[in-house]
Amino acid sequence: xxxxxxxxxxxxxxxxxxxxxxxxxxxxxxxxxxxxxxxxxxxxxxxxxxxxxxxxxxxxxxxxxxxxxxxxxxxxxxxxxxxxxxxxxxxxxxxxxxxxxxxxxxxxxxxxxxxxxxxxxxxxxxxxxxxxxxxxxxxxxxxxxxxxxxxxxxxxxxxxxxxxxxxxxxxxxxxxxxxxxxxxxxxxxxxxxxxxxxxxxxxxxxxxxxxxxxxxxxxxxxxxxxxxxxxxxxxxxxx
Length: 239
Known about the structure:
CATH topology of the largest domain: Alpha-Beta Plaits
CATH architecture of the largest domain: 2-Layer Sandwich
CATH class of the largest domain: Alpha Beta
Largest sheet: 9 strands, mixed
Order of helices and strands: EHHEEEEEEEEHEHEEEEHEEEH
Number of domains: 3
Number of strands: 17
Distance between the termini: 27 Å
């Protein structure tokens, strides 16, 4: 017997935390009976479990690494008909993105049907580091970037300390390329951090996510994660 939210996450419906909300909203049934108690248990082998009327079936877990191009939505669907990250990976499994990248941000994003794994990677307490390359307007000095290294106050609170490094500057154009590593995942966080010190982001790309990078991939390309990569990411999060 397993908790319902765990079974729903393992089936690739959504993350465990979102599965809890589905249960609370009365959208989950076990053997024809509505279940609204988070923590209720069931057995996928012997019980008939459904979410929004769709029977639950445990899928083989899959893990994709995608080089998301700019102009693609980090979502399972879009009501405006725009291209999403789901459109760029194989369609035989129902997957969802782990976290999100802004519409106008490119780079590394993981997609999976393993809700447990997704929750491990997304939760800020697990401190999975994410590295971005930002082209910014202006020429930030070391003193400017130290504000980000110490953590800077945004409208939703102070950020955790970042690691920053200037990659190159173009004095003629008045722009700089800066590498920044964070472990949080707030909405448009990197852009807001640079805005806060007066250097707006012109272009942004996520280069690394934990041990993963974009080596060998072009924008729009994807590959399956190797078993040792999945194992290592779990270990990093759990430690």
